[in-house]
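Annex B.
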Amino acid sequence: MSRLNTNQLSLAYGNRNIVRELNLQVPDGLITALVGANGSGKSTILKSLARILAPAQGGVYLDGKLIHRLPTKEVAKQLAILPQNPSAPEGLTVRELVAFGRYPHQKGFGNLTSEDNRMIDWAIQATGMSAFGDRAVDHLSGGQRQRAWIAMALAQGTEVLLLDEPTTFLDMAHQMEVMNLLEKLNKEQKRTIIMVVHDLNHAARYAQHLVALKAGTVLYEGHPETVMTCDMLRDVFNIDADIIPDPRTGAPLCLPYGLVEDQESEASPSLVAANVQEPIERQRVQAMA
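ABC transporter ATP-binding protein: predicted structure tokens.
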């Protein structure tokens, strides 16, 4: 089942085509990770799924309806997005930030209702930020700030969360802190989470569904154990790597050891996209088998 999907979606910035005829089904109740090299279209796709970027052709569908034709508040009640490197006004407290998540539900003068306050309290508690409710967001550590922003997204009360590189610029401990929180939200509350991830080992460990992109085209899609292969790493990232099972979780671990040096690595994105169109369906079937 998929509440959120695309149909022949093409995306562009001006005259520059980024994504072409994308057909993507986001599995409900799972963590989906979008992976790919820089410029592969990951963040662009996420923006379109969140109704931030309008399609050049095709469309994004939420519960069978074109998302770009739905009222903004209606969409905001069903999905929330956390962009890259969000910033809050100086001095804004965690509770004040989280309260912004209730905006889609407010009427009239926007006064907080008892339900709004209940959801704010719950979101702060769920993200482990109860001790920081009155603390200024700009006085928090990197991991704490990310948890505060995730709390704001949770306060929207949506079933779908979209996150663009949620661990960027965080140290290893804070990265695990954020990823463990997302895993908890997915397992305990069945939240559907779609996230752009640079760290392939994070993607394989925490996601149940991987989408590997190159030049705006899906090359591989499916469970991490079938997608995280040496062929995928060569085709998508132009690297040679060993894949071994994580000794603790069993998830595939990527150990890169070299770059693939061939003519394709020097090709333009448009030529790469043309070259991968023919085998895409075969690769997708293999990955999802």
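The longest strand covers residues 4-13. Residues 263-289 have pLDDT under 50 and may be disordered. Further annotation is deferred to the next reporting cycle.
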